[in-house]
Amino acid sequence: MRQCLTSTIVVFALTTPSLAVDTELYWMVSRYGSSPDEVRRANLGGAEIEILQQLGGGGRQVRGITVDPRNNCYYWTDRGRNTISRAVGTDPPEILVDEGLAEPEAIKLDLGQNKMYWTDAATNKIQRANLDGTDVEDLVTEGLDVPRGLALDVAENAMYWVDRDTPHLMRADLDGSNVQVVASGTHCAWGMTMDPDSGLLYIADCDGIKRASTDGSLFELIVPQGGTKTSIDVDPKNGYLYWGHLTEHKLFRAALDGGEAETVITERIGSLLGLAVLPEPSTLALLALGGLLANRRRR
User: Fold this and answer.
1) Residue 189 CB-density burial (10 A; 0-12 exposed, 13-18 middle, 19+ buried)
2) What are phi and psi of 160, to 5 degrees?
3) Which of 283, 8, 291, 11 is nearest to 157 (CA)?
4) What angle do CA 201, 204, 210 make, to 5 degrees?
5) In a domain, 2, yes or no
6) Cα torsion at 227, 233, 236, 241 (round to 10°)?
7) Domain, as residue range, for 210
8) Exposed end of the chain (fewer CB within 10 Å): N or C?
9) Residue 94: strand, helix, or coil
10) How would you write the pLDDT of the chain (299 residues) with one tens digit per residue?
């Protein structure tokens, strides 16, 4: 079985053969009953769909997904079995965390520090661990109410999140300190991401897609759309944001500044939950460099 490397990142090591740049969209399909949950990927137009994992049926509920192309793997949460796992391509998954979880949801990576962060909607916590699952830490344990969306800004030593059952966009330092309310106005929020180029946050909730600045001075609805949205991610190179729709069983995209939603995948694909866009090489370098510089400032 191929190994997912977790050594210190070299900024110029940008791509790997198994995560090709023409298959840049990763998502989770969750089903109930006997049908297996799946990890899939495709190109950014929704074509050339490939099934990477079939995870078995009977109540599994895969949720968040994130991609680490330089270390040759992808990570996901499973709130049916309360695990965090990773895999390389179609290889069998490696379970990293299987204790202390109740309903793990969003998952994000700080590659500069070899850390993964996640929310747990049942324990109402934000936690982190090393990329191999060791050294699990509780970061935020108070004031959360079904936390789902999560975004990291490692260059600014900050993380942001949204709860399903509160209307607030929240912020804290990466160690969980200095918790603050950034803005209010979310409605049963689920997915969240950050555009690394603009530094703006995008939130998927029951009103549609919202955009916010990290200081709260900007908070606006840019894509009105009813129903429950799930995960969301951005493609800064081409100027798109992508999100899943729970009740319509579709994957949509729109311009980063909003406008009309375009259907990317039209088949009924089950409950589309986790979603991740494979970053471009230039974005990968900036993220890695930002993490390294932030670490220097924190020392």
Assistant:
1) buried
2) -130, 150
3) 291
4) 55
5) no
6) -10
7) 25-298
8) C
9) strand
10) 566 765 443 332 223 334 444 458 999 888 766 778 899 999 999 999 999 999 876 556 788 999 998 887 999 999 888 999 999 999 999 999 999 999 999 999 999 999 999 999 999 999 999 999 999 999 999 999 999 999 999 999 999 999 999 999 999 999 999 999 999 999 999 999 999 999 999 999 999 999 999 999 999 999 999 888 889 999 999 999 999 998 888 899 999 999 999 999 876 667 888 899 987 554 444 444 455 444 545 55
β-pair type (201-205, 191-194): antiparallel
**CATH code where residue 272 lies:** 2.120.10.30
Are 204 and 149 within 8 A, CB to CB? yes
φ, ψ of residue 96 to 5 degrees: the values are: -100, -45
Identify whether 256 is part of a domain: yes
**CB burial readout 135-145, b (16+ within 10 A) else e:** ebeebbeeebe
Exposed, middle or buried: residue 179 (CB in 10 Å: 0-12, 13-18, 19+)? middle
Number of domains in the chain: 1
Place of tokens 């962060």: 117
